[in-house]
Amino acid sequence: RAATDGRSTGTCDAALSLLDDLWELYDACGEDDARPTARTYNSIMNVLAKSGEQKAAERAESILAHMAPQDGAAPPSPDTVRMPPDVFPDVRSYTVAIDAWARSNTGGDGARRAERILRRMHAARAADPSAPAPTVACYNAVLHAWARSGERGAPGRAADVLSWMGALAVTGAGVRPDVTSVNCVLDAWAKSGERHAPEMAWDALVDTMHAYDAAVAGGEESAAPRPDVITFNCAIGACRHVRGRTTGERKDALAIARRAYRVLLARPEFGAPTSETYASLLSAAVSLGDGPSGERDALVQEYFGRCRDDGLLDDFTLGLLRRRLSGDDAFEKLLGDQMEKG
Fold it and tell me: 72-83, pLDDT tens digit by residue?
């Protein structure tokens, strides 16, 4: 159980111990069906990737390095892994190793390690057409790693990977980005807290919409990813983190959030607002500050009411408002006013 659920303490050791047991079984019986295969090693790597344990990503990459010594990457951990000479990595092997670093919570270092594996995979494919080709999932795992890294400059690194992915696709040497690829870059901006994040996220959203509309107009809708509500939520989310900004910058961020919301309402093919949409809008509105015009309270009232009317008011949104509006009577007044209207 410990070696399959990916949650218990000691899962990594248990998984590798299980691999040793499988080899002992094979040595004892000599049956080919009992010998570990690429699928076996992929399963072990997947357990490591999901374990959450320290050094798990290094240990997963170590197995990949044993499977693909031709990549020139030395095993990055002291684990001794027995590997038959006729077992080679497949797409799943690389994807799981990349995902292990994306899940590793090691910040920019983990993202760089994930990207390095992807680039080794691409180089191996370029040298040998029979080698596994990177899939959209491989690229997206790297993009996700950069989005969650928290490293300064991470959005730019994610955008570079997306551009590289798109350029390869144009030449026929890669796969087209999908909406998840785009959303990862927007999520990187949303998580970054960088001063120009709202503007950069909005530009990325507009570029994605324009590319999709051009593809549709050209009769090739599948040639560009179609934005979805997550795309918009990420763009709006980039307007939430406005600490340290001037009043003018906070107003600009809120204006971008409101603009994205209006576009979402006008383009139902992209999806309908979710509770996350309203939570981000409310957070951006609260960050405006309570000026003499009462603009903040009016906007909070508006989006709170729309969220309630759409049936999307949840504990997360209420908790966000309670935290952000603590210290004044605004939250209780908001609830009271909305109950009267409801």
Answer: 555 555 566 788
